[in-house]
Amino acid sequence: MSTTATRPADARPRIRPGHTLRCAVDRVRVELLQYMRRSDALVFTFLFPVLLFSIFASAFSDVPALIELDGQAVTQPQYYLPAMLAAGVFLSGVQNLGIEIATERADGTLQRLAATPLPVLSYFLGKVGQLLVTTLLQAALLLTVATTVFGLELPTEPERWLTLAWVFFAALVCFAVLGVAIAQIPRSASSASAVVIPLALVMQFISGIYLPFTVLPEWLQAIANLLPLAWVAHGMRYAMLPDVARHLEVGEVWNLAGVATALGLWAVIGTVVAALTFRWIKRG
């Protein structure tokens, strides 16, 4: 006498070894194709920091240096380069992913994916892979424009480039999970941009992206220092600017330990919130 085991209709088949990784690779390809076809993502996420840097560098090219001491100087275009590098990772992670995932939930894309053998981890690895590729290309384009069009000099010390690398990738992970977490806030596709973009814009203004951080009121600095973007911008400035730029920082010191601590804490917070709140199906 034979028996047939039954399982709940919503249960997924057992995942074979390597299936998650193969699905993730496929998802990266799909995500990149979809990204390149979205004109709003290309303009307001990929090209936006490059365009803003070009505007700022052109407008402030003849403005006196922010600081000049011991034969070193920090010009306005120099100051905006690390700011736009930080903004690029932030916009791609928090703003773009937040809007993208919220829209996919609202239009039923996530519900359709839930009916496939696609693991949740593969879905998110696809998003992170797309984020990695696009932010690296964006950073390369921004540095190329800065050096070839505006004649800025890049740092030559290996330590500075190593710092740039770990701050960049730590920020990428942090902003990716925060983007997933923020995507749970909008309740419809039409409200996704209206909810996420103002939050992103406010965070940029208080984090020293468009204005030097030390010109902000102390109470705004205190709020910004509770958020990750201000620390990413601080780490980027350490990597890209002459050491004299530390006199433009709070306390006139570099605080890379603070950068690592803040990004680590926010990555953990974002991961926990995303894991607890993510749903394939739109909320009622």
Automatic annotation (TrEMBL):
Keyword Glycoprotein carried by entry: no
GO cellular component terms, A-Z: ATP-binding cassette (ABC) transporter complex
Topological category with respect to the lipid bilayer: Multi-pass membrane protein
Domain ABC transmembrane type-2: 40-284
Subcellular location: Cell membrane; Membrane
PROSITE patterns named among the record's database cross-references: ABC_TM2
Pfam families: ABC2_membrane
Residue spans crossing the bilayer: 41-60, 131-152, 164-183, 195-213, 219-241, 253-281
GO BP annotation list: response to antibiotic
Listed GO MF terms: ABC-type transporter activity
Transmembrane helix found in the keyword field: yes
Keywords: Antibiotic resistance, Cell membrane, Membrane, Transmembrane, Transmembrane helix, Transport
InterPro entries, per database record: ABC2_TM, ABC2_TM_bact-type, ABC_2_transport, Nod_factor_ABC_transporter
Family (UniProt): Belongs to the ABC-2 integral membrane protein family.
Protein name from the UniProt record: Transport permease protein
Organism expressing this protein natively: Agrococcus carbonis
